[in-house]
Every structure is written in structure tokens, then in C-alpha cells.
Design goal:
The chain has 15 helices and two strands. It is an all-alpha fold and 435 residues long. It folds into two domains: 1-265, Amino acid/polyamine transporter I, CATH 1.20.1740.10; 275-358 and 366-389, no CATH class. Strands 1-2 form a two-stranded antiparallel ribbon. It is globular.
Length: 435
């Protein structure tokens, strides 16, 4: 399960970076008064979803790769300065957008109803990738037990508020039917009669996407390095360059994979596949939290372990049932009267009948098991709003990971663990959350 989660996080980084790189090309074209596809090569022999080849995205990723491998400190300074500029551009967009706002654009507030809202919510998780990159920087943080939770929670609150304000402003500037998919804010300001503003927006967007790519490059390389240290991935990926202090091999490999995907894959395919991967990871994290709180080897009794497994299975089963019913029934409600009570009673049973075996030492998620259980059902429910083709692509990726794990990763990591310590010490280390 850990390897599947790790593989999907790597997929999330690659797909997310590819999507941002292609968006970089779109905003760059807008800045030069061109259509986004004007700077892409059209391969008419390929499917419409893969025919627009993007060489600019590859160039941008190559530059990001050089910046990421040169110096972590230099990258941090660049991001610090760029973030100040980014905040200024966001404030400008909100203020200028509200000046040009037209409340009539909200006359049809939810044109696709409740189902449309949840379908959009599933893809909206695109905006929340990257927060897990904060945790990969634990080795370079002075007080990770305190600073990382503060950084994660505070940044997520700020980003959520900014995202809502920007989305609200965009729909007030321009009717939702006319919003440009590739460069929405630049085109919206131009349509509203402020052609000069689109240059500020486009320049700010390019700067923002550049920092996103750089942060992603730094985070994904370190994540791959952690995995390679267990030998689940080739150990040469864990090598840190002596001069720069950065994981050179891991950075190059991850950004090369990102460049290949960014070269030919459309933004729509990338966003849906990214959403599946992100929602799946969030669900696994919530499950992992419950396992960590309720199970400790040698402490949890057999009876409590069985009760925990039963309640967790019921939570998962009812959540999956709710998602399937939502995806297959357009206006039904009877199925929810079965699945939702099962979820509620299962969570209540876990809270009432199974004692927690571990308490957090520094910082812990509150309202356990209610909050992680709700996270499980919400993430699975949103997965039910994503199209079938994206699930097929996700299934292929998962199958490839499983085959790789059983043919290589499992044996390599086992041999490494046996060499490193005795079986008893290894079990204790794993139970305490070590590698």
C-alpha cells in the first residue's frame, strides 16, 4: 500500500508539472498576442488529445531542472522573491476584476446543478497538489515537528481563500461560457476592455507557474530520493551531489519524465488523471492515519484489531457504494439511505468500541476517527465524478506499479533491510514510522 501511494505521488508530480508547463506555453502565447496553440506543433496523424506538441514546455522544464540541481538555497531565495511578486499580482487581479465585475454573470449561478458542482470539485483538487512537498523538506527544516504542520495548515488556508476569491472574480468579469480554458484571466480582462491588464496578468501567471515548477522539482526529487534509499527504486537515484547538495539524478529523471508527458498530452487528460491520483492519495493518507492511531504491534489486542478491520472495511465499503450510486444514478436517492447510515454507524462504532493505541507526540489530527473517516468518504465520493477513460489510465499505471513492485521493489528493499539490521530491530523501526 505504501508503494502504491508513493507511486501515485510521483505520478501526481509528473502530471502536475506537465500540466503547468503546458499552461506556461498558453500564457506566454497570450502575452505575445497569440493563440495558445500557435506555438505548438500540430501532428495531424495523432489523436486530438495528443496532437498538439509543445516544445516550449520542454525548454521551460529544462531551465527549471538546471535551477533545481544548482542549489537548494538559491531556489529558495528565488521562490521567496517571486512569491512576493505573485501575491501582488493576485491582489491586482482581485481588485481590478471587481472593478470590472458584472453581477449579471451570476444570474445562472449553478448552470449544471449539484452534479456539476461535484464534478468540478473532483477536478478542483488540481489546485491542491504540492502541499505534500512541504513534508519532503523535513530534513532541511530546523524544527519539523512544529514547523511543517504550521506551514501546511497555514498555506492551505491562504491558498483556499485566494483560489475562491480568484474564481469568484473571474466569473464576475466574464460569463462562464466565454472563459478561455488555456489563459482564462488574460482573455477575461481583454474581453472586459482592459487589454493592458492582460499583460500584467500573463506576466504574473508565468512567474507563478515558474515557481510552481521549481517547488515541484525540488519536492519530487527529494521524494524519489527517500524511496530510492530503501532500494525500492534504483539506489543511484538517492545520490546527492557533493558540490550542490542536491539529488542530481532524481531531479533529472523526474523532470525528464515530466517533459515527455508535457510534450504531447492535452491539459484536459492531465487534469482528470491528476485528480484521480490526488484523491486516491488523500484517501490512503486518511486510512493510514486511522491505522497508525488504532494499531500498534504488541499493544493492540487481537479482538480490537479484528473490530478495527471490520469497522474500517465498512467505512470503505459504504463510501465506495455511495460513489458508485452517485455515478450510476442521475436522480435517485434510495441508495444513500443505505450507504450513508452504514458509514455513520461504522465510524461511531470505531469511536466507541475500539481504543486508540497511539497518541500524537507533537501535533495530531483532531476529531479522530470522525475527520479521517469523513475524508475517506468525501475523496471516494469525488472519485465517482471522474470519467471512465481517466480511471482506465489510472488502472494501467497502478498495474505497472504492482508488477514492478513484485518483480523488483519488494526483493530489493527486503535484501537491503536484512543487511541493515536484524528482523526484530527492523519491525520496531517500521512500527515507529521509520524507513
Amino acid at each position: 500500500m505504501a508503494f502504491i501511494a508513493a507511486g501515485n505521488i510521483l505520478l501526481e508530480y509528473v502530471i502536475g508539472g506537465a500540466a503547468v508547463a503546458r499552461s506556461w506555453t498558453s500564457y506566454f502565447a497570450t502575452l505575445l498576442n497569440h493563440h495558445p496553440n500557435d506555438f505548438r506543433i500540430v501532428a495531424h496523424g495523432l489523436s486530438p488529445d495528443y496532437r498538439y506538441l509543445d516544445p516550449i514546455a520542454i525548454v521551460v522544464l529544462a531551465i527549471i531542472c538546471l535551477m533545481a540541481v544548482m542549489s537548494t538555497k538559491g531556489s529558495s531565495i528565488f521562490n521567496y522573491i517571486a512569491s512576493i511578486i505573485h501575491v501582488a499580482v493576485i491582489i491586482f487581479i482581485i481588485i481590478a476584476g471587481l472593478i470590472k465585475a458584472d453581477a449579471k454573470n451570476y444570474s445562472d449561478f449553478a448552470p449544471f446543478g449539484v452534479r456539476g458542482i461535484f464534478q468540478a470539485s473532483a477536478v478542483l483538487f488540481f489546485a491542491y497538489i504540492g502541499f505534500d512537498a512541504v513534508s519532503t523538506m523535513a530534513e532541511e527544516t530546523k524544527n519539523p515537528g512544529r514547523d511543517i504542520p504550521i506551514g501546511l495548515v497555514a498555506s492551505m488556508v491562504i491558498v483556499t481563500l485566494a483560489y475562491c476569491l480568484l474564481a469568484m472574480t473571474l466569473c464576475l468579469i466574464q460569463p462562464y461560457k466565454d472563459i478561455d480554458v488555456d489563459a482564462p484571466f488574460s482573455v477575461a480582462f481583454e474581453a472586459a476592455g482592459w487589454g493592458w491588464a492582460k499583460y500584467i496578468v500573463a506576466a504574473g501567471a508565468l512567474k507563478g507557474m515558474t515557481t510552481v515548477l521549481l517547488v515541484s522539482a525540488v519536492g519530487q526529487a527529494r521524494y524519489l530520493t527517500h524511496i530510492a534509499r530503501t532500494h525500492m527504486m534504483p539506489p543511484w537515484l538517492a545520490i546527492v551531489n557533493e558540490k550542490t547538495g542536491t539529488p542530481l539524478n532524481a531531479t533529472v529523471v523526474m523532470l525528464a519524465a515530466t517533459a515527455v508527458i508535457a510534450f504531447f498530452t492535452s491539459l484536459g487528460i492531465l487534469s482528470n488523471l491528476l485528480s484521480i491520483s490526488t484523491l486516491f492519495i488523500f484517501m490512503l493518507v486518511a486510512i493510514g492515519l486511522l491505522v497508525r492511531r488504532y494499531y500498534v504491534s504488541g499493544v493492540t489486542t487481537i479482538a480490537n484489531r479484528i473490530k478495527f478491520i471490520v469497522f474500517l472495511a465498512l467505512i470503505l465499503g459504504s463510501s465506495i457504494g455511495t460513489a458508485i450510486y452517485w455515478a450510476s444514478s442521475t436522480d435517485g436517492w434510495i441508495g444513500y439511505t443505505i450507504t450513508l447510515p452504514i458509514w455513520l454507524l461504522s465510524t461511531f462504532g470505531l469511536w466507541l468500541f475500539v481504543p486508540q493505541a497511539r497518541e500524537p507526540k507533537v501535533w495530531g489530527v483532531p476529531l479522530v476517527p470522525w475527520l479521517p473517516s469523513l475524508s475517506i468518504t468525501v475523496n471516494i465520493f469525488l472519485l465517482g465524478s471522474i470519467d471512465k477513460a481517466s480511471f482506465e489510465r489510472f488502472g494501467i499505471w497502478t498495474l505497472v506499479m504492482i508488477v514492478y513492485y513484485f518483480l523488483f521493489g519488494l526483493h530489493a528493499s527486503y535484501d537491503t533491510a536484512k543487511e541493515a539490521s536484524s528482523a526484530k530491530a527492523l519491525i520496531k523501526n517500521v512500527e515507529e514510522g521509520g524507513a
